[in-house]
Amino acid sequence: MTTHYSFLSWVRGGAAAVITEPDADDLPGHAKVPIELKLTTTPTEAGGKPDFINLDIHLYGPSDIIGIDPHQIIRTEPRHQTSNFMPNYLAAIEFDRPDFPWLFTPAKAEAQQGRLRPWLCLVVVRKQEGVLIGTQPGAPLPVLDIHDPAIANDELPDLSESWAWAHSQVLHEQGDANLKKALTEQPNLAISRLLCPRRLEAHQSYVACLVPTFEVGRKVGLGETLSETENDINTQVLKPAWSDPQDIKLPVYYHWEFSTGEAGDFEDLAKKLGPQALPAGAGSRKLYIGQSGVPAPSGQTDWEDLDSLDFAGVFRPAGFPSPVPPDRDAPQSWVAQLKNVLNASDWTSTGESSDAPIVGPPIYARFQQSLQRLPDAAAGWVNELNLDARNRTAAGLGVLCVQTLQEALMHSAWQQLGDFQQAQQLIRQSELAQETSNAIYTKHLRTQQTNGNPVGRPLSRALFYQMTAPAHARIVVRDQGQSAAEGLPPTLARWAEAQHLPSLGTISTFRKLSRSGGPIMRRMEPKASAGQRAQSESAETRPLDLRTADTGATNPTAFEISAGLTAMKPLGKVRLDLIGQAKQWQDNAENSSEADRARADRMQMAINKLQAHLKKLTDAPRAEERTPKLFDQEMQDDLKAKIDPKHVLPPLLISRIHAPANGSSSASAQSSEEGVPGVQAPIAHPTFPQSMYEVIRELKPDMLMAGADQLKENSVTLMETNPEFIEAFMVGLNHEMARELLWRGYPTDQRGTYFQSFWSQGKADINKIHTWDLNSRLGQNLEDGHTSANGNGDQLALIIRAELLRRFPNTVIYAVKAKTERTLCKDPDDREHPDEPVEVYPIHRGQLTDDAMFILFNLTSEQVKSSPTQNGWFFMFQQQPTEARFGLDVTASGELLTWDDLAWAHLETDPGRYISVARAVDSLSSINDPNGPKWNFNGAHMADIFLQKPYRVGIHADNLLS
Predict the structure, then answer these.
(1) CA geometry: angle at 946 spanning 940 and 951, to 5°?
(2) What single DSSP character describes residue 6?
(3) Among 361, 423, 356, which Cα is nearest to 393's?
(4) Same domain as 515, residue 440
(5) Which member of 263, 565, 704, 952 has the lowest number of beta carbons within 10 Å of its beta carbon?
(6) Does 481 reside within a domain?
(7) Mean pLDDT across the chain, nearest whole number?
(8) pLDDT above 50 (res 829)
(9) Is residue 601 a part of any domain in this protein?
(10) Long-range contacts of 886-890 (CB under 8 A, 24+ apart)
């Protein structure tokens, strides 16, 4: 189905949709909407009957408005500060709400023609003496003050015709049902618009202002006091804000400024476009290498017999030959001498010895490719870059750009280094923590292995459980058990709590007090012989059978624990670890002093007094009967692996260091990127995402396109990008930046690719230089998406110098494949080659000079030109269809028969004057279009009449290729 615009003369929503008051001169200031309330005081089941109360509610009116939300304004025509707006167009302002112009108008639309006055309007006032916009004491809004010598009546429209210049626009599929659906269900497809009916003068400055149309709105916006009648909601009557005024002050809801240029619309400017053959010498220049500094052969002082080379910049003429191996354009002797000069700086070679290195011309890309001398093979991009004078010139331009911007670049590099140094410090601290944690872990928790045999006494599970207790709350157990069912974190601490394992005995203070060599056990321990100590040590790993004092029953929840350590007994939520400790005291007190035995007896007496209470706690039935799961060897091994520093610390470090997508300024470890075999990946380094073609345009604009200043006005031509120049320039940038970082003492190597973006900021146009294949050709190392269909980097560039793009910067430009009548059809599935693209859109657009643009397409000249097997391509210039513009042609093109023929010459409106809808009726009597819009009918019809239909023009590539 076809999607198109529909203009509506008014739109109402909400309570305003039921307003019944007709629009008239004495319109009440607030609309009344009747409502019926249903009130029931007694329940209906008890015989109560509802009471119905009829009320009138008053809606907001123009006197309640002292400002609007600027977010409601989505577009102004022209934009603020436009300097060359077409005077044959009308100024306009668009709102997000489709009912905004009538939101506070307290009336319904006229029934027959659908006219409805808006509560605000757009006026365009000529900037002159006597016209001021500023603040006024007590006024909540800016004030437009028109006074002598300016005449307000000449600067303001007729408010009795304000209905003609307000409308809504809806984008929908054809059909009234779809129109209603778009309004109710897709409000984003509908907007409202106000037009200013003033015919503008050429080369004039204006101020466009959004002002109220009713007097009470004007007074409220100025902060003036309303009269008693105006202040009463029941007696307030709406009067026009002005009528034939000489001087006036108006509150301004919104305003912007613009100036006009020459008359003409998109169609007029597009028809002026024409192909231009490149002037002689444009697109390339001559490069003389005779005085390049390369030593001449013996017996000569210079290379006098050398011819100049054809040198192209970023853009070259379509079909311009790509650089061939240098020894074909320059004498082989000159190339050999240049290679000797470049290799002479290789002071590490086994040739002639020298006490100091030789300083000579640079070998570009030597840092990124780790080169000391040029490769012996003649092919390859390194030799093409360094031995071709044209490519060396492009690389030298990159060197010049870095040298010119070195301070700004280094400032950015040092700023990036701040995070780098912080990350490096964090890495060093992590390494220290790793070594320290490994030593502690190895000494206390990991059994040493010597010749395959364990060294040292292995830890019991109880001691291991105690020593690792501080980490239990952060260790996820292998079997989640009850914790997962309860939705709790499945940590070891949660698991132990669910299994009723003892916890008090795991705290460090208790471990220190109760250990076998601690202060308590040392005083309790008798002076035993060596044999007794050995017997005690052998019993250390014997399980302790812990029984309750009065029943003798074995505690089923006790787990294996060393006799020399604390025995812990769980009693519900109570942990009384002293029970097991008391048994040790009693055993040791038998051979101790009288005082020690007395202390042990007192402790036993205290415990005996608690037995009754403890027994109740022990025998209390549990809410959930289950078999306890003990801390087994498998869980110990799992816990030991999870607290191993080599598994824990690296992820913590990685989580604290963020590596950006380009991986350049990150403080990460060595890059894992694989480059050319034998070339180590660069370490972290600064990056500069700026678009570097703009640097060329600022510093050396003639290097973009030779002879760009010779382009004629309203001219279009096709050129190709020069991938060899682009890659050489980018290598020169990175080469010089590497030297600059070394000179400034920046802590990085010289192998990084600091610049990758040539066309668009932040988008890489070349691969990282250290990944370039040495066997590839120069110009074949661009990122994916920057290579044309022929596999090279040469893409088409549409060069345009035209007033069209300066006045209409949002012009849609694209390439479309030409079709014959036999293959042109509405259904794309019926095309002869359905897989072929019909339309190709630009991949980049930018500024070539101040008044010329370039548009890049991923196409080649061979693709777009005609041939016996294809009809070629058109390059289309299309007016933006979503930006509706309103106005008329300056001059009549023929007899006035349809609305498309209407021009300003047909209306009795001089430049600078406002359109009178009623006065122009007689001059349009020759138009007879029964199915079209009607003049002086409503706002929707007037919008349709003044709408400038989108226009497009196409130029075939055959006419653009020189």
Answers:
(1) 120
(2) E
(3) 361
(4) no
(5) 952
(6) no
(7) 77
(8) no
(9) yes
(10) 886/89, 886/90, 886/92, 886/195, 886/943, 886/946, 886/947, 886/948, 887/86, 887/88, 887/89, 887/90, 887/265, 887/946, 887/948, 888/88, 888/946, 889/88, 889/265, 890/88, 890/263, 890/264
256 domain-assigned: yes
3-state secondary structure (DSSP) of residue 919: coil
* Six token digits for residue 417: 């280094």
Residue 211 Cα distances to 201, 222, 226, 314, angstroms: 22, 11, 18, 52
Q: Which of 798, 825, 843 is the last residue of a domain?
A: 798
Confidence of residue 627 (pLDDT cuts 50, 70, 90): very low
Candidates 179, 193, 186, 167; CA nearest to 2 is: 179
Are the C-beta atoms of residues 688 and 758 closer than 8 Å to each other? no
Q: How many residues does the chain have?
A: 962
Is the pLDDT reported for residue 691 higher than 80? yes
678 and 614 belong to one structural domain: no
Taking the CA atoms of the chain, what radius of gyration do you get in angstroms? 44
Cα 670 from Cα 667, distance rounded (Å): 9
Check whether residue 442 and residue 588 sit in a common domain. no
Confidence of residue 277 (pLDDT cuts 50, 70, 90): confident
Residue 659 has pLDDT above 70, yes or no: no
pLDDT value of residue 499: 62
Phi first, then psi: what are they for 34, rounded to 5°? Answer: -75, 140
Phi, psi dihedral angles at 538 (to 5 degrees): -70, -25
Strand order in the sheet with 248-251: 131-134, 143-146, 248-251
User: 339 and 388 share a domain?
Assistant: yes
Which tokens hold the place of 174? 């054809």
> Is the whole-model pTM more than 0.70?
no
Residue 409 shares a structural domain with residue 530: no
200 pLDDT band (50/70/90 cuts)? very high
Domain assignment of residue 258, yes or no: yes
Tokens linked to 23? 């629009």
Residues 216, 238 contacting (CB under 8 angstroms): yes
Of 594, 624, 654, the residue at which a domain comes to its end is 624
Residues 301 and 260 in one domain: no
Q: Quick check: 421 pLDDT over 70?
A: no
> If you average pLDDT over residues 191-209, what whole number do you get?
96
Rounded to whole angstroms, the Cα distance separating 736 from 364 reads 9
pLDDT of residue 645: 83
In sequence order, the β-bridge partners of residue 54 are: 36
Count up the domains in the chain and report the number: 3
> Could you tell me if 617 and 649 lie in one domain?
no
User: What average pLDDT does this structure show over 477-506?
Assistant: 58
303 and 248 share a domain? no
The kind and range of the H/E element at 120 are strand 120-126
